[in-house]
Amino acid sequence: MARPRTWLEWLNPFDRFQRWFTFFAVFWFAAAAYLLYLAFTRDGVRLPATLAIYLLATVAGSIVAFVAYGIDKRAAVREKPRISERTLHIMGILGGWPGAQLGRQIFHHKTLKLPFRIVFFLIVTTHLCFIGYGMFFGWWVDAIRALMTAKSA
After folding, report:
1. Distance CA 104, CA 5 (A)
2. Rounded CA gap, 32 and 138, in Å?
3. Is 3 a domain residue?
4. How many domains are contained in the chain?
5. When you count CB atoms within 10 A of the terminal residue's CB, does the N or C end of the chain come out lower?
6. What is the pTM of this model?
7. Cα(117)–Cα(81) distance, rounded to whole angstroms?
8. Cβ atoms of 43 and 148 closer than 8 Å
9. Is residue 153 part of a domain?
10. Distance (Å, whole) CA 114 – CA 13
11. 134-137, Cβ contacts within 8 angstroms, sequence gap of 24 or more
């Protein structure tokens, strides 16, 4: 049986969207990792520099952010020195928002603190706007072209 929801969870406007954010974050991380894998291992696969840099920042930043959320959760449970919220937010800003979202959900860390969540979702919204900008200017075409022209090594 599921635990009863706290009053903070009832008041939180983002609670209903947590699963969708997590799904999109995992999907974006997997797609970014796969496109980078193709770009680095296959001949003939070319990505624009801005897309490649953003995908690399997403993959590397997500791994670092996921590990940092796990370390911070462990430190919180053991009442040891913690990683600052500012550092966790900076990791999200630098591209690690998918790993941060996954770390928040898996480790159940920073999920009830509303000010942290608001800043985090502003960071995610900024990244979604950047992704939308890239899609508007042809990233999706380049990504599909990279998938279609991937040759076996």
Report:
1. 17
2. 16
3. no
4. 1
5. N
6. 0.82
7. 21
8. no
9. no
10. 10
11. 134/50, 134/51, 134/54
